[in-house]
Amino acid sequence: MFNHDLGGGAQLRLLELRHAPEFLAFIESNRAHLAPFLQWADTTRTVQDAEDFIRRGLDSLAKDGLPWVGVWQDDALAGGLLLFSLQHNIRATEVGYWIGAGFEGRGLMRRALMAMLRYLFEDLGVNRVGLQADTENVRSQALAERLGFVREGVKRQSWLLYGELRDNIQYSLLAAEWRTRTGPAAEQG
Fold this sequence. Notes:
Layout: E1 3-7, E2 10-14, H1 20-34, H2 39-43, H3 47-64, E3 69-73, E4 76-83, E5 92-99, H4 108-123, E6 128-134, H5 138-146, E7 150-161, E8 164-174, H6 175-182, H7 184-188
Parallel strand pairs: 5-6
Antiparallel strand pairs: 1-2, 2-3, 3-4, 4-5, 6-8, 7-8
């Protein structure tokens, strides 16, 4: 089971089927906040929908060792991270994340994403982590850039959201860049 203490009462926990009612309640209370960028936040309407979402994450864990996790703050679900299928030939994956409206601005997602990146690069030996942010999602872009992700460009009309083709900014972070940012030299500087 994947659990990680983020400090300050915050934890990453593997999303399990038993979390489906809590996950649904989180979506319901944050639907207006999340749905402009995450269509699944609009279509997750029942416990069965929540279970189906979580089941996809458990399948990813079984297939590639890539957990889909919830971010809890003081035992309240505050957000989450998911990882897309591992491209084995180049040791690459992509991360997606979301945070509830009441938990923004606390550095919680930054800490959660840092912990997940550490797991991917240091424990799993991943070489590349990609990230896509809608061109209108400035908060997601800012977080990616604060964490050292390199903006590779705009993928035009690469995302279908509510029947509309949207542009996404493509970011990536390589293992060598991670080591430079987090290694002994970075800690001293």
